Amino acid sequence: MSRVLVVEDEQHLADGLRFNLEAEGYQVDVVESGEAALESVQTEPFDVVVLDVMLPGKDGFTVMSEMRQAGHFVPTLMLTARGHAEDILKGFAAGADDYLTKPFELSILIARIRGLLRRKDWLRGVSKDTYVFGNKSVDFNRGELRVGEQVFPLTVMEASVLRYLTQHEGQHVSRKALLSEVWGLHEDTDTRAIDNFIVRLRRYIEDDPTHPRHLLTVRGVGYRFVQNPAK
Ligand code: CA
Known about the structure:
Layout: E1 3-7, H1 11-23, E2 27-31, H2 34-43, E3 48-52, H3 60-69, E4 76-81, H4 85-94, E5 98-102, H5 106-125, E6 130-133, E7 136-139, E8 144-147, E9 150-153, H6 156-167, E10 172-174, H7 175-183, H8 192-205, E11 215-218, E12 222-225
Parallel strand pairs: 1-2, 1-3, 3-4, 4-5
Antiparallel strand pairs: 6-7, 7-8, 8-9, 10-12, 11-12
Calcium ion binds next to loops.
C-alpha cells in the first residue's frame, strides 16, 4: 500500500484529502506544519508528499528545499495559490515534482498522485538503466547522477525529464511535449515552469551551466539534448 503524507494546516481540507485518498486505497498521514513534515519524512518511508505552500511557521517552499537538502527525494506535489504563477516556478526551483493550484478537483489530485507513483515504477523498470554522456552518467533505476567520483541524487521528475530528453537525443523537444509526456499536463500550463526545471537540471549536468553543451535551448521551440557535443 502506498503511503501519502499530506502537509496542510486547513483542517477541513486535510480531512477531505485524508478521506478521499484512503478511499483510493492509500495509507495517509496528515501533519499541520512544515516542521512536522520534515520530521515525518525523516522517520517514515512515504511514497508521495502533498505539500501546501501556505503553512504556519516554515512555508512550503522552505520545507521543500530543506527536504531535498537533507537528502529526501520522495516525489512531492505542491499545492499553490491560484493567480500566483511565480509560486509554481518557486516550487520547481525548491525541488517539487509537480504542482496543483487551489482550489482543485479531487479527481485531478488523485490522478497526479498516481502519475508520480507510476513514474517512480517506470524509472525502476527501464531496461537500459545507465546513460553515459561526457564524464557523467545517470543511473535511472537509482535516480542518481554520477560526475567522476561524486554522486548526486535526482528527484523523480528530474530523472524523468532527463530520461525523456536522452531518449530523444539530438532531436528538438518542445516544452509542450515535456509538459504532456513527462508531467502528463495537457492544460495551458505556464511553460516557464519547464525552463526553471531545466535551469535546475543544468546545474547538475553542465560543467558551466551558463554555457550548456549537453542540454541546449532551441529558441522558440524548447530543448535539445546532445550526448557528445563537438569539441
Ligand atoms: Ca494551508
